[in-house]
Structures are given as C-alpha cells and as structure tokens.
Design brief:
two-stranded antiparallel sheet; His-Me finger endonuclease fold; binds zinc ion; single chain
Length: 88
C-alpha cells in the first residue's frame, strides 16, 4: 500500500473515532430547509453559481449539521471559507 494511502486511512479512522463524519452529515431535509431559506443565493455574495450547503462553524471546529449551523454559499465563497477554516 502506498504511504499516502496509509496516512489517508489513519486520518479517516481518526475522524470516525472523533465522530466528525457523523456530525458532518447534512440530512436531505436540512439541506432543503437551508436552500429554501437562502432564497436561492449565496449568503456572502448573493451569487447563485453552484450553491453548496456549508457549515457556519466547521465540523472540525465542533460545529454540527443542524439548520442553525448551516448556510448556503456559492462555490467560490465556499472554497475561500474552507481555506480560512483550515488556517491558511
Ligand atoms: Zn458567494
């Protein structure tokens, strides 16, 4: 097995142990609610380009997948936010 694959599997096991995958899961119902509440636009810039449901407080930082902690972002705002959440 390639080294990277071993590291990936270790990371995946650690995530599962921390319950992160479970907290990251957004149900279809919550996704629908958040999309409906957004009015069809990104929470940051209002764009309707490739909208994605995002965790306001990232799961890695303790956020959950309840509607209170979800927002709709376009693809470019979401990727910018992900870099920031990762500390870059
Ligand atoms: Zn945006």
């Amino acid at each position: 097995m390639p080294r990277d694959m071993e590291r990936f599997n270790a990371w995946r096991r650690a995530r599962r142990a921390a319950g992160i995958d479970k907290r990251a899961y957004v149900s279809a119902e919550n996704r629908r609610l958040v999309m409906a509440a957004s009015g069809g636009g990104c929470s940051y810039c209002g764009s309707s380009d490739e909208l994605q449901v995002d965790h306001v407080v990232s799961v890695r930082l303790g956020g959950n997948s309840e509607p209170d902690n979800l927002q709709v972002l376009c693809k470019s705002c979401n990727s910018r936010k992900n870099w920031r959440d990762a500390g870059w």
